[in-house]
Amino acid sequence: MRVVFDTNIFISALILPGGKADDAVMRIIRGKDTLVISHEIMDEVLTVLARKFSKDAEALSRVAVNLASMGEIARPVHKLKVLDDESDNRILECAVAGNAEAIVTGDKAMLMLKNYRHIRIISLGEFLRQAK
User: Fold this and answer.
1) Which residue range forms the structural domain that includes residue 97?
2) What is the mean pLDDT of residues 39-46?
3) Share of the chain above pLDDT 70, in %
4) Least C-beta-crowded within 10 Å: which of 68, 78, 97, 122?
5) 5 forms bridges with which residues in the sheet?
6) Which CATH number fits the domain that encloses residue 127?
7) pLDDT at 132 exceeding the cut of 80
8) 95-115 pLDDT tens trace
9) Domain tally, the chain
10) CA distances from 69 to 44, 102, 117, 118, 132 (A)
11) What are phi and psi of 71, to 5 degrees?
């Protein structure tokens, strides 16, 4: 499945190894699903890690390299204004540009959409259940 992970999935996987978010990332690493990611999503992950978790430049650099090598880079050309949170719109843009089948998120506003342009918006638990 071609999938976009919301920032919260990456942060959870990095900060809480061994959890459900880590399981989702491992599906990507093992080649069971294809990650679609954009520079905007990578920037947000790095910003959150620096600001909220005080990660240093070396750690952020490693994360950036790993994220870029883990998936296909989508380059959105159209800005969307679907949700109030601009970072959520960046997730939708990535999914559209990368022809994703699903967005995996814990964000309630995004989950309420259920789908956008034939892209399913699902919870982490639902993603892992479908993956079995």
Assistant:
1) 2-131
2) 96
3) 98
4) 78
5) 104
6) 3.40.50.1010
7) no
8) 999 999 999 999 999 999 999
9) 1
10) 17, 20, 27, 27, 25
11) -145, -175
Contacts 24+ apart (CB under 8 A), 115-120: 116/82, 116/92, 119/92, 119/95
Q: Over the stretch 45-87, which tens digit does the pLDDT of each residue have?
A: 999 999 999 999 999 999 999 999 999 999 999 899 999 999 9
Element (H, E) at 116: strand 115-116
CB 56 within 8 A of CB 105: no
| Greatest CA separation for the chain | 39
Q: Which of 98, 130, 127 is nearest to 21 (CA)?
A: 127
- Amino acid symbol at 9: I
Phi first, then psi: what are they for 102, rounded to 5°?
-150, 155
- Specify whether the backbone of 72 is left (phi greater than 0), alpha (psi in -120 to 50) or beta: beta
Q: Could you tell me how many residues make up the chain? A: 132
